[in-house]
Amino acid sequence: MWRSLVDFGLVCKARPVMSALVIGSVAALGHRYPFLGGASGVLIMAWSSVATLIHELLARKNTPMNEVRAEHYIRSGENITAFLLTASGADGIWKGTINGLRAFRNTTGALRELNPLSRWMKASWAATKSELQEEKMSLFEGFRFVAGLFDNVLLPFNWLADKLKQT
User: Fold this and answer.
1) What is the pLDDT of residues 55-105, one digit of tens each?
2) Rounded distance, CA 164 to CA 144, Å?
């Protein structure tokens, strides 16, 4: 996580306009399309949980402490941090995901005459563009929701920072 934040700072300093556009885009898309934000949050938390478990088990296989075992513990810690950072927006992730799933279910029920692929595609689009109705997020919830999506932003920033360091 520390590396991610350092890389984020490096890229923001080197490319401030691009950084502002990326951060603003993720915030706007997460707010405008809460199902996408919610679904990506669920995927990040699921993946980081599985990756943490895998690295913990691989670390236990290497009985003496060595570089390989230490590397597994580092990766495990990074995945725990990713989970916690994403979980900070859990209520927004929950609301966005549930709202999109409701829209998906309602659309598939209304389009029974279409073939399954067309019905699935139309329902997926309905879920994606669905907006929160009765369950609007407060400003604080919205901020935590976008902060929970921060992991989506950090991955490309880490890649770009590595490229900048090589040049």
Assistant:
1) 999 998 877 778 888 888 888 887 888 788 888 888 888 888 888 898 898
2) 30
